[in-house]
Amino acid sequence: MRRYAITQADLEAAIGDRWLRRARERTERFRQAGRYEEAAGIWSEVKDVYVQLQHGKCAYCERRIGTDPVYAGELDVEHYRPKSGYYLLAYHPLNYAVACIRCNRGLKRDEFPVAGTRMWDGEDPRSMRAERPLLVYPIGEVDEDPAELITFVGYAAVPAGSSERGRRTIEFFRLGAEAERDDDLVTERARVVRALYMANELLRAGRMVSEFGDEIAFAQSPAAPHSQCAASFQRVCESDWGQAELLFRAAGDFLRSKGLL
Ligand SMILES: [Zn+2]
Questions:
Q1: Number of domains in the chain
Q2: Distance 74 CA to ligand 1 centre (A)
Q3: Domain for residue 3, yes or no?
Q4: Which residues, 6+ apart, have CB-to-CB distance to 259 below 8 Å?
Q5: What pTM does this model have?
Q6: Using the 8-state DSSP alphabet, how is residue 177 labeled?
């Protein structure tokens, strides 16, 4: 997971006044009814705003699905706080993110574990921190930076320090190394580690410095898949080359065990 920086004003400008007006009308109806109830939602109309903001990546696993409209069906607009319970947040822009089908429909569904007290009537995520959500929300600055809660040892996601939220988020979305995700999440991360190590190796040898420098910088940028895994590994490359080599070899062993190297 990584943060996608944007202000609420910029997010709302990208969404547009027309949709926001309709969203406010619907929220007002839910308020009067005391619950979420409508025949069909309109959040899919703003999906592309989040697809572009997140560079076509899943909010939780950082797999890149793509920004091309052909991939639209493989990313869902996910309600961080489920609309079924948090009826006043069904149309709040800071309650949305796009997530892959595996993370959203397979794992998240309508769940929202908290360590604090539920605020079912909350209408602004920024004033609902007392709920102490266990999962992390990556859009804007409404929540903690995921990079401070989750880090990586080679291709494996681990909690940063002793972060309970990090641990629970990894467990919930099965982001760890041994996870049975039925997808290529860990394989992709192992390839990121391998590619980054090789780029560093060539850079250290003084080969095409600007080309490999660009590779290393891009791998850690918001547009790159598994950018937080790359950023963690790059820190190791710059501080402990011997350890980087061990992690590179471990990624190779993992790929070999899958018949992919
Ligand atoms: Zn995902």
A1: 2
A2: 10
A3: no
A4: none
A5: 0.95
A6: T
